[in-house]
Structure formats: structure tokens, C-alpha cells
Design brief:
The complex is a heterodimer of chains A (about 625) and B (about 375). By secondary structure, chain A is of the alpha+beta class. Chain A contains 25 helices and 21 strands. Chain A is elongated. Chain B is globular, with a radius of gyration of 21 Å. Classes of the chains: A alpha+beta (about 625), B mainly alpha (about 375). At the A-B interface, α1, α2 and β9 of A face α3, α5, α7, α10 and α12 of B.
Chain lengths: ~625, ~375
């Protein structure tokens, strides 16, 4: 027993009993307090409870604008109103529905469907019944505040695309966040949030998205806001500057307006994209307000695929534009002497099959320079046969064909550059040597995108520097790939491309420009094989994809433009060539201060547009 | 009758009442949070109860006389702990109340409640009188007010206040003279207006709480808003209540911290006056049963321990229930065993462990 603890003291039973009585009395007092609230004043508090309503009102942050390289607005946001339906009081909601259907012109079926879909979301989250309210709608809500407390107006921010269809495929569009995205980023998004769905809107969503604010208001039983509890301001998204030049973009777009195809113009030193067109296209403004399902389905099912960005997603045979890569491969590999001469009688036989030149009369004795300038098929058939597919693959792949360029856009396609290994892996058989002959003139199992071709040409003319194409102006840490080419090779090939345009008889002679070292190469790839085309007959059988890739000056280009016009029966120099020429011209006009706005294909020295009389429709027979 | 302390001598009826209160608490925590981001909280609470029960058994193993022997050491340790909290404590919601022990945060002031029970039980036993002199009272006040001041500094008005009833109830049983008690009450009556005039020395949040207690309608955002919302929830519950998880004020989140400090308001809305009667009568049963244990204690030391625990629990219930119906300001005192909270729940079980400790040794020599 501890010395401090003496047990002789009695427990004070009396005081303990008193403690018990006091405790009981206090509990009775507390119960009296509850009785007063819950029984005596119960109705008063029930009334207050009914009137009690805190509504969280989101303050939507506007998305950041997109500006062109000179600071002109390409995309911005503007405030508008949505009509919300409050769901926290099911009884009142049920009663109000018929009146809402009438007043806002929403069908009962549609409304019930929306309510059903939102059944499992928290009750305090309202439903957006009308995403873009008209003035009449707003007036209806305002005048029925008392009898329709379930309706509320919400200010939202909508996207505006002042250029409409111009640049649409590159910019992309926005839409409500999908359930899948919501699940992945539950902390970032809430239902109904607007996010980028395609193009730059998707690519740079994180950069331009703002932070929504939140206002909590207390409303009384007739829906009137009594007071604001707190207010967290929205933080608007930051604007981004693009490398696009609106002037060049408009010119390219006008030139392509009635065509199907793509154009991409790129700064040859930096990889900055100056213009990017894909046709047919769509109007992203249609997506700024919730797009009706029928319209969405129509866009998706359109056989002309208006949602596709052909500049980075169209995978097409390059046709004769590929001859520049062949020429580079021939000189760099040294497998064939640089002064090699082939004789072109208009056709040639390889592996027991006849391959035609586009010029049935033949070109006679052809060296590399003539081969490029006159685009002689037989010359390159011979080069292809001597190099073999794997050497071709090595140089084409080195110059960026058949793989993604890494442009800052979602869903870029890789194209296809075949090799023996690829055929073995995919088709489990050996490469047919005859296929190489087709590939040598850019037909057969080879597919490239316009952006790849633009970069490959830039790289050849720059001695093997592959820039990274990009659309964001201040993109740090750009990757530059090196695929070194000897100076002799570059000199010979660029001289060829210069003479395509500037030497009489060149396939692009009609496109020449004053005071500009405009160089390039055309290509006209068949959509169907020669035999299939013959069977179909008529115009459809002769459909081609016309290419032109041009740049200036002759070495280390300032600007490179690749254009493709699909589904025409004409030669690439005729269909795509003028588009490229207009862009290169406008680029130098701007530089020298001679640029006049607005400019279209018509008012750029029409006298220089000379009809081209030398289609080089490559033909091959099997 | 002599023998070893046995588990069978635990106060099982008392633990039965405790179990029912815990169950009601868990059900109401579930009801308040199941449709929100806090869903699943009831399982955490259940875990804390489990930890508390283990602690209760452990603390009942150590003879309370041994604990009282160590009272000076415990007291010094507790004060040192509170000082450490003030110096290197971990801040949460603007208050420094936690220190980190092996990755777990520990609220030292909860431990101080246990320590003050033991220290004052030792002191009152040692005084060995039925008439406390003024000198004795001054010592009691000194022992109590040092930790009170340190906890106030954190600042944690609620926990600081909770230590005072241990001293008052202890003094009452140790034989405070009626004239001293009367003077004390008079002093308190005088000190409150004085404190009111000194209120500008209080922390801003304390000032605001007192201000809103007096004028709830003027502050619709802060504590006054909380009390008003609590009253609306309680009042609208009516006599029979709105039904389990059907209280609109609770479910829509109008009741502030509905799973913790205001859990009684949530319950009052959903279970009505009937439900409140059941809960408060359960607490009264708990207190009466605790007093019964004090009456049957082997010695005065045991009685002081049991009544110290009773004083704290009773004070908690009184202040919390009064707050819910707007009779007292918001002080952050939870409803024991029902409000969600780890440290608070664990404390109650440790305190009950002290009571079991006394009870199972009443026949032991």
C-alpha cells in the first residue's frame, strides 16, 4: 500500500447521491430544450428547413485564346447563359416539369431521358437543360422565379472560332468531358466540364484551360438569392501563341476551298508550321454549343471524313515526289555512279513485267539531273532495282518517311515505308523484288503524310537536318534529328529541284517565280492500279492524288510547302503546284513588304499561272 | 473477500450501455456521410473503437494505485508534452494540437485529460481531510490551471475547459466548504463579465464564437450560421423524426460537421425527440452507473478516479447537447462515443479502462 493512500476515509455517499440527482436534473433540462425545439417550435423550424437551400453556382473560367504568330485572334471565348434544372427537391421538380417543357420548348421525352441519365449523380448537382439560352428563354426563367424555383441561369463560357472552317482541323474542337475521361481524372473534371476533344484544343488543353470558380448562394423557398456565402473567382485560361500565319493560312485555305486534300507550310529552319489546311472540313463553332447527335453522326459517317486532319493523318502514295528521296539514296549510298545514265524508250521490263514511263515516247538517254527535271520513271526504275528495297528504306526512313514527325497534334499517322523485314513480319513472306520497282517511283506499298514529305524535302535541302514540326510558338526543347548528307549530294539534288521549276521543259516550269529561288517536285500518284483503273474505266478509273512539294531558297529553305489534291484527274503540278507557289510567293511578299491583304489565288499575279502541258501520270503494268 | 483482479469483475452492464451508444453513433455517421465524399467513415470509427477497447483492457491491468504512485512523473511528462506541442507541434486548421509519434499524429491534450484525473485523484487522497482549506484549493487550482493555460495557448478552448470540472467535482467530494464554494461561484459570476471586457485579448476565432453565440443572426456564415442550421435540423425533426438517412438538412449538408461535433443534431433530425430521449437517457444511465462504481470503490483514491472520468464525460455531454440546441456557443467539444474522432474516442475508452481498473480491485487487498 502506497504511503499516501489511507483507507480510513469513508466514501462520501451523500454527495455522490447528490451528484446523481443533479445529473438527472440536467438531462431533464436538456430534454426540455429539445422539447421546445422539436415539439413546441417544430413547425417553425420545419418551415425554415424547407426554405433552406444553398446553391453552389460554378463560375466557369474561359479557355485561353489562340493567337497566330502576329498576335491575331484565331480562337477565343465569350460568355453566354445555360439554363439549369435543380434536382434537390424531387416533389417540386415533378410538379414543374410540364410548365418547363412548354416554356423552354423541350420535349417531355427528352427531359425525362436527361433526368434518368443523371439519376445517380449527387442531388445538389443541377442538370443543364438548355446549354445556349436564347433571350426569350432567359426572360422565361426570370419571370417565373416565383413559381418555377427549380430553374436557374448559369453563366458559361463558349468557344468562338472567328475563322470558321479555316484551320478547323488543326485547331480541333471542344466538347463535354466524356464519362471515361471523367473516371480517369476525377479530381480534375466534373460532369459537364468543357475540354478539348481534338486538334490543338486537345493537345494544349492543360495550358489553356482555366480554373473554375465557385459561388455559394443561399436561396429562399421561391428561389430568390438571399445572399452569397462565398465567392471564389474563376481563373481564366492563359492564351497560347501559335506559329500559324493567318495570311498564309487564308491563302492556302482559299486555294483549297473546292478541293479535297491538304496543305502544310513549314518554316524550314525551325519547323514552325505557318499554315495547315485539310479539306473537306467542318465548322468548330458547331461544337461550341452541345452538338445535336444527328449532326455529330453525320460528320463522323461522312465518307469524305471532314474530321480527319489530312495534313498529318492522310497516308498516301507520294508518287514522283519520292524520286527526290531516290536520288538522295542513289548519290549517298554510292551503289551507283553519280554519272549513271539509263536509256528510256518509254517502258522497261523488270522481272518479266513491263513497267511504263509516264512519257510513252520515252526520254532517251537520261542522267540523274534529267531524271529529276523530266521526272523520268524508267531512270528511277533502274535506280530502284540497283539499290534494292532495304537501301531505299534506310534513306527514306532516315529522312523521316514512314514514321511520325512528332508534331504537337494528337493522332498523327505514321504512314508506311516498307522493308524486307516489314514484309516478313507482317505478311510472313519474302519481299518481291518487283515491288521495289513500283516503290522507286512512289507507288505500291509506300504511304506518307503531307507533313512527312514537307520535312523530308526540308531535310534534303538542308543537308540532313530534320526539324521537329510544331504549332506552339514558344515550345522549348525542340528535338532536331541529324541524318547527315554530303554536300555534293545536296548540291546535285537541289539543282535538280531548282531546274524542275526554272529550266525550260521542267515539269514545274509554269510555277516559276520572279526573284525567288523556288524549287520543288511534283508527283501524281494513281489512286487505283493501272489494271483496276482500266476495269473501272471513265473518270473514276483515272483518279489521281496530285502532289507538289516546293520550297525556297534552293539550299537551307526558309519555307517548305507540301500540298496534295486528292481525287482529281489532273497532274500534281497543275492541281497542287499553284497552291504551293501562292504560299511561297506570299511568304516572300510579306518579307519584302509587298504583301496586299486580302489575298486570294486570283489576285496573285494571274499572268504567271500558265497551264501545264506535261502530265506525268506514271503508269505501271503488271 | 480477497483474490486477483478478474475480467469478470468488469462492469458489463456499463459496457453494454457504451456499446449501444457506439452503435447509434456509427449508424448516424453512416447516415450522415454515405452519400458524400466521406462515405465509409463509420468503418474508421469502428476501428478507433476497437483500438480504444484494447487500450481499455490494457490500462485496467495496471493497478490504479501504481498509476497514482507515478502521478508526479505523469504530470511533468504531460506538461512537457504540451510544451513540445507548442514549440514543434503540427498545425492543422490553424491550431497546434498534434505531435508526430512514429508517423502517427497524437493529440497530447487528450492524454492530459487522463493525467489530470490521476494527478487530482492522488492529490485529493493525499490531503486526507473532509474540509479543504483555502491553501489546498489554491494548490488544486494551480495544478489544474497550468495545463489549462498551455492548452488554451494551442488554442483549444474546448479541451482546456474540460479539465476544470475534474477539479471542481474532485473538490466537491473532497469536502469543499460551502462558504468556499459560494465564494467560488460568486468569483466565477464576477469573472465572466470581466473576461467579457477582456475579450479583445482572445484569439479572433474565440471572439467570433462568443460574438455569434450572443448574436447568431448577425453572422450567417460562421459559427452563428452553424448554430442556426443545427437548430433548424433539430427543430424540423419534430417528435418522431424524418427517418433514418432521410433528414434533408443532414443529407444536404446544412448541418455543420454532422458526423462529428453536431452528430446529435443529425440524429435529432432523423430520429426526432424520441431518438434524443433515448440517447440522453443512455448517457444518464452511463453516468449513474459510473457514480455507482464510485460508491462501491474500495477507497477514496478509486472514487476520485471514477468521478474524474464521470466529470469529464458528463461535461462533454452537457456542453455538446447544449450547443446543438443553441444554449451554448460552439466550442468544439464532441459528444463522447458518438462523434467521429480518433483521439477523442480512444480517450473515452482509456478513461473507462480506469473505471474498470477501480471496479475490479474493489475486493482485492
Amino acid at each position: 500500500m502506497a504511503p499516501w493512500n489511507i483507507t480510513d476515509q469513508k466514501i462520501p455517499q451523500g454527495r455522490l447521491a447528490l451528484f446523481s440527482y443533479v445529473s438527472a436534473a440536467l438531462v431533464v433540462l436538456l430534454l426540455a430544450g429539445f422539447w421546445k425545439l422539436q415539439v413546441v417550435q417544430s413547425e417553425h423550424y420545419a418551415d425554415l428547413a424547407d426554405k433552406n437551400g444553398i446553391r453552389p453556382i460554378a463560375i466557369i473560367a474561359p479557355r485561353g485564346a489562340m493567337l497566330d504568330r502576329e498576335g491575331r485572334v484565331l480562337v477565343d471565348s465569350y460568355p453566354s447563359f445555360s439554363i439549369l434544372l435543380m434536382r434537390d427537391n424531387p416533389k417540386v421538380l415533378e410538379k414543374s416539369l410540364p410548365q418547363i417543357e412548354d416554356g423552354l420548348g423541350i420535349s417531355a421525352e427528352d427531359l425525362h431521358q436527361q433526368l434518368e441519365a443523371a439519376k445517380f449523380e449527387p442531388k445538389f448537382l443541377p442538370l443543364v437543360v438548355k446549354p445556349a439560352a436564347s433571350e426569350a428563354d432567359i426572360e422565361f426563367v426570370e419571370s417565373h422565379r416565383a413559381d418555377l424555383p427549380v430553374l436557374e441561369l448559369e453563366m458559361v463560357q463558349r468557344r468562338r472560332y472567328p475563322l470558321g472552317e479555316v484551320l478547323a482541323n488543326t485547331i480541333g474542337y471542344v466538347g463535354e468531358v466524356s464519362p471515361q475521361e471523367l473516371e480517369k481524372n476525377a479530381d480534375k473534371y466534373k460532369p459537364g466540364d468543357i475540354v478539348g476533344k481534338a486538334g490543338l484544343e486537345k493537345q494544349y488543353n492543360e495550358l489553356i484551360v482555366g480554373t473554375d470558380g465557385m459561388k455559394r448562394v443561399v436561396v429562399n423557398s421561391v428561389g430568390r438569392v438571399i445572399r452569397t456565402l462565398d465567392n471564389i473567382d474563376a481563373i481564366p485560361g492563359k492564351p497560347i501563341q501559335l506559329t500559324i500565319d493567318e495570311d498564309l493560312q487564308r491563302i492556302a485555305d482559299t486555294d483549297m476551298a473546292d478541293k479535297q486534300g491538304a496543305v502544310v507550310a513549314m518554316d524550314g529552319h525551325t519547323g514552325e508550321i505557318l499554315a495547315m489546311v485539310s479539306r473537306p472540313t467542318f465548322d468548330p463553332n458547331d461544337f461550341a454549343v452541345r452538338i445535336p447527335p444527328q449532326e455529330w453522326a453525320a460528320l463522323n459517317k461522312d465518307p469524305n471524313t471532314p474530321l480527319l486532319n489530312r495534313a498529318i493523318q492522310a497516308q498516301l502514295a507520294p508518287g514522283s515526289t519520292f524520286k527526290i528521296i531516290m536520288a538522295t539514296a542513289m548519290l549517298e549510298s554510292k551503289a551507283i555512279p553519280a554519272d549513271y545514265i539509263a536509256y528510256c524508250p518509254g517502258e522497261a521490263v523488270f522481272y518479266g513485267r513491263v513497267f511504263h514511263c509516264w512519257q510513252p515516247k520515252g526520254h532517251g538517254a537520261v542522267d540523274l539531273h534529267t531524271g529529276i527535271v523530266h521526272s523520268c520513271d524508267v531512270f528511277f526504275y533502274n535506280v530502284g532495282q540497283r539499290l534494292g528495297i532495304d537501301k531505299i528504306y534506310y534513306y527514306a526512313n532516315g529522312l523521316g518517311l514512314g514514321r511520325r514527325t512528332g508534331i504537337d497534334l494528337p493522332s498523327e499517322e505514321p504512314g508506311l515505308m516498307p522493308s524486307e523485314e516489314w514484309v516478313q513480319r507482317v505478311y510472313h513472306h519474302k519481299w518481291y523484288a518487283g515491288e521495289t520497282i513500283s516503290v522507286a517511283i512512289g507507288q505500291g506499298a509506300i504511304m506518307v503524310t503531307p507533313i512527312q514529305l514537307a520535312r523530308a524535302y526540308d531535310s534534303v535541302a538542308s543537308g540532313g537536318t530534320l526539324v521537329e514540326p510544331h504549332l506552339l510558338k514558344d515550345l522549348s526543347a525542340l528535338k532536331v534529328e541529324r541524318f547527315p548528307l554530303s554536300d555534293e549530294t545536296v548540291e546535285k539534288v537541289t539543282q535538280g529541284m531548282y531546274d524542275v521549276i526554272n529550266e525550260g521543259g521542267g515539269t514545274g516550269y509554269a510555277l516559276r517565280l520572279q526573284d525567288v529561288d523556288f524549287s520543288g517536285k511534283s508527283g501524281t500518284a494513281q489512286v487505283m492500279s493501272y489494271q483496276a483503273g482500266a476495269k473501272v474505266g471513265g473518270r473514276a478509273g483515272k483518279l489521281t492524288n496530285g502532289w507538289f512539294v516546293g520550297y525556297a531558297p534552293r539550299r537551307n529553305p526558309d519555307i517548305v510547302v507540301a500540298a496534295v489534291v486528292q481525287g482529281s484527274t489532273e497532274h500534281g503540278g497543275t492541281t497542287a503546284g499553284p497552291v504551293v507557289r501562292d504560299l511561297v510567293k506570299a511568304y516572300y511578299d510579306k518579307k519584302s513588304g509587298h504583301f496586299a491583304q486580302p489575298s486570294t489565288a486570283e489576285n496573285i499575279q494571274p499572268s504567271h499561272v500558265i497551264p501545264v502541258a506535261d502530265p506525268e501520270a506514271e503508269a505501271e503494268s503488271r | 473477500m480477497t483474490g486477483r483482479p478478474r475480467i469478470q469483475d468488469f462492469d458489463w452492464p456499463l459496457l453494454g450501455i457504451v456499446g449501444v451508444i457506439c452503435l447509434l453513433g456509427i449508424l448516424e455517421i453512416y447516415s450522415s456521410t454515405h452519400a458524400s465524399a466521406l462515405a465509409g467513415m463509420q468503418w474508421k470509427q469502428l476501428m478507433w473503437i476497437g483500438i480504444g477497447v484494447v487500450g481499455m483492457f490494457l490500462i485496467s491491468r495496471i493497478d490504479y494505485h501504481t498509476l497514482l504512485d507515478q502521478a508526479p512523473v505523469l504530470y511533468v511528462t504531460g506538461i512537457a508534452g504540451l510544451l513540445i506541442v507548442l514549440v514543434i507541434g503540427y498545425s492543422r486548421l490553424g491550431a497546434k494540437r498534434w505531435i508526430s509519434v512514429g508517423g502517427q499524429t497524437l493529440q497530447v491534450s487528450e492524454l492530459m485529460k487522463l493525467i489530470i484525473i490521476i494527478v487530482l485523484a492522488r492529490y485529493f487522497t493525499e490531503v486526507r481531510t473532509d474540509r479543504l482549506t483555502l491553501r489546498d484549493l489554491a494548490k488544486v487550482a494551480g495544478l489544474t490551471l497550468v495545463p489549462v493555460a498551455l492548452i488554451l495557448k494551442q488554442p483549444d478552448l474546448g479541451t482546456a475547459m474540460v479539465l476544470v470540472p475534474v477539479a471542481l467535482v474532485g473538490a466537491f467530494f473532497a469536502g469543499i466548504e460551502w462558504k468556499h464554494a459560494a465564494v467560488g461561484l460568486l468569483l466565477i459570476a464576477l469573472l465572466v463579465p470581466l473576461a467579457w471586457n477582456m475579450r479583445h485579448h482572445l484569439k479572433p476565432y474565440q471572439q467570433q464564437r462568443i460574438e455569434t453565440f450572443l448574436h447568431p443572426e448577425q453572422d450567417q456564415r460562421g459559427a452563428g450560421y452553424q448554430i442556426l442550421q443545427s437548430e433548424i435540423a433539430v427543430g424540423s425533426g419534430g417528435f418522431w423524426g424524418k427517418g433514418f438517412s432521410k433528414g434533408s438538412q443532414n443529407q444536404l449538408g446544412f448541418v455543420p460537421v454532422r458526423y462529428s461535433d453536431f452528430i446529435l443534431a443529425a440524429l435529432a433530425e432523423e430520429q426526432g425527440f424520441i431518438g434524443v430521449c433515448v440517447v440522453l437517457l443512455l448517457y444518464l444511465g452511463l453516468i449513474l452507473r459510473l457514480v455507482d462504481n464510485a460508491q462501491k470503490a474500495k477507497d477514496r483514491a478509486g472514487m476520485y478516479v471514477v468521478m474524474g472520468v464521470t466529470a469529464i464525460l458528463g461535461f462533454h455531454v452537457l456542453v455538446n447537447a447544449s450547443m446543438v440546441i443553441g444554449y451554448m456557443p460552439v466550442t468544439g467539444i464532441p459528444l463522447p462515443l458518438m462523434s467521429y474522432g480518433g483521439s477523442a474516442t480512444a480517450f473515452v475508452f482509456l478513461a473507462l479502462g480506469l473505471v474498470m481498473n477501480v471496479r475490479m480491485r474493489r475486493f482485492v487487498n
